[in-house]
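Reopening this one. Same input as before:
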Amino acid sequence: MRFARTAARPVSGARFVSSDVTGQLKTTLLRKRDEQAPKIAKLLKEHGDKDLSSATVVKAYQGMRGITGLIYEPSLLDAQEGIRFRGLTIPECQKVLPKAPGGQEPLPEAMFWLLLTGDVPTAEQTKALNAELQSRANPEAIATALKAIEALPTHMHPMSQFVVGIMALQHYSKFASAYAAGKANKTNYWELALEDSLDCIARTPTIAAAVYRRATGLHGQMPALDANLDWAGNFSHQLGFKKEEVLECLRLYLSIHVDHEGGNVSAHTTTLVGSALSDPYLAYAAGMNGLAGPLHGLANQEVLTFLFEMRDRLTKYGINFHDDKAMREALTKYTWDLLNSKRVVPGYGHAVLRKTDPRYTCQREFAARHFPNDPLFKLVDTVYQIMPGILTEHGKTQNPYPNVDAHSGVLLQHYGLTFQNYYTVLFGVSRQLGVLSGLVWDRLQGRSIERPKSVTSESLFKKFNVQ
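Same output, byte for byte:
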């Protein structure tokens, strides 16, 4: 496999010769930490014993839902406004973050800069970061990971293959090697974590593309990285997609799936494992195993199954997808039949959000601009028009509005990325930008190992005198 640019960066003790852009990132991180440190110290001194939330018995049994017990810097989820990346909403990110020439969607590497530093990067900084990531695409490390993947059955789940690839890349961890050599300590953990995170982000798209190609039987040599393409553009090319509109779609997808505050399974798992001073590869791989769960990263596949079910039923009864009235009537009946049979509507509702997910909205707008007459989009659009009203009347949901999963599969299906088992890998390639940013900040702020207290049911029976 050929690469446009390669530059291995061996560990030399615990110090690194930084490129200009890596040096900028490190200088910015240190400055931001030092600016924030006095405020954190004051917060702890004056308010350290204040309650953030209540850890009730029911919350202990229900996955700690609603308990505030984590600090996570890259993003915050608001019930009304949706996700904010370093204080910016998704529409604001779409407006201010650098884009590819002629494009409308943010570049994911620009989003990474924002999540990591809290600053909106310039176009020059974004371009420099992309070049730095390409320079870190170490062919030896990637070849090691590809060799590990090639030993696996092609029909193994793509996420399992991807995690094996991440674990093979871990052999090149600068954090792990420096720690083993006694050259890592609390003063440079963050720097080692940043080095590993940059390396990981540089190498995993090629691993993910290889998983896709072998799982789908896509033959031929994988394209080398192109110095003229952005991070998402190169990933798209290595997946086998070259049309600019597809690249724009993946730039959007990879930008909006980067993070969703720190309590979701993939983010919290990464944080938890990293708190034991496991290196970023180990922590990220653990987070991906969490993302693979049906209640987390598989949700968009369940939505597609639901949509295909509806599409097949409408087709069976001869409903014209361009007849809005007939579509609404048929889908309304189908939805009530579904709800009355005690089934749920996948893609609607969210544990925190109480309005339409902004990630859904920006994907809907993308589809409306680029393929408004696509039958699957017409179906989703009609569902969007009727579903909140039906769910509100049904009265069994706190949030009758769609979340991100209600739409993301539609975009991927339209552009030919139809292998649904791969969707969690695509999600995971994006999510690393957020969770690794969070991990760097954990080490930068010197966070402790996570160790919450647990109790048994029997101990609660005794505590509350339950006979």
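So the earlier flakiness isn't reproducible anymore. For the record, The radius of gyration is 23 Å.
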